[in-house]
Design goal:
With 172 residues, this protein is α+β, with helices and mostly antiparallel strands. Among the domains are: 2-67, no CATH class; 75-126, DNA Binding (I), subunit A (Orthogonal Bundle), CATH 1.10.30.50. It has helices at 23-31, 75-81, 120-126, 151-154; strands at residues 7-11, 17-22, 35-39, 44-46, 51-53, 57-60, 96-100, 115-119.
Length: 172
């Protein structure tokens, strides 16, 4: 059934958004007494003997301590950190590349502090040199993003029923 794969928001015992699971997993958690249903946004599933409410938001009966994970270094994460803006000339767009400030050919590390978004012309102009050698300036010093416990939710489709539990997400 397609409805069993619908996303469900999972809240920690303190109502803090924790994760997203599917309806099937949420119904199991509620059924075995590990969670309670907070919002019914989908109707019911009927079996021969009983009707079960389809959850949209559930809350765990116990607290889950979720460690803060460092953000993974990826092209997409770098572009988001830099606001899809070339860090040398300020041009915004989707047609960007990754530039290593200290070039890899000179043993520059592949770390948050050594990579920036750059447009193709700036990346070619800088080539295998440092910004100083290429007479180019960075808009700002790159840093690793702070750990974000809500990163899982930033680039997802947020259902209307979830909004009261996610006040930091702006609705369009």
């Amino acid at each position: 059934m397609m409805i069993l794969n619908t996303p469900v928001l999972v809240l920690n015992q303190n109502y803090q958004p924790l994760n997203i699971c599917n309806v099937k997993r949420a119904m199991v958690l509620v059924g075995v007494g590990k969670a309670e249903l907070l919002t019914n946004g989908q109707g019911d599933i009927h079996t021969v003997r009983q009707a079960y409410t389809i959850p949209s938001v559930i809350r765990l009966h116990y607290m889950v301590k979720k460690p803060l994970m460092q953000r993974k270094l990826s092209r997409r994460a770098i572009f988001h950190r830099d606001g899809f803006t070339c860090q040398y000339c300020g041009v915004q767009g989707k047609n960007l590349t990754i530039d290593h400030i200290q070039p890899r050919s000179r043993n520059g590390p592949h770390t948050w502090e050594n990579v920036v978004a750059a447009c193709i012309p700036c990346n070619h102009r800088k080539a295998g040199r440092t910004p100083r050698e290429a007479n180019m300036r960075l808009a700002r010093e790159p840093q690793a993003p702070r750990p974000d416990p809500y990163a899982l939710f930033h680039h997802r489709n947020i259902m209307d029923e979830w909004q009261p539990f996610m006040p930091w997400i702006e609705r369009h």
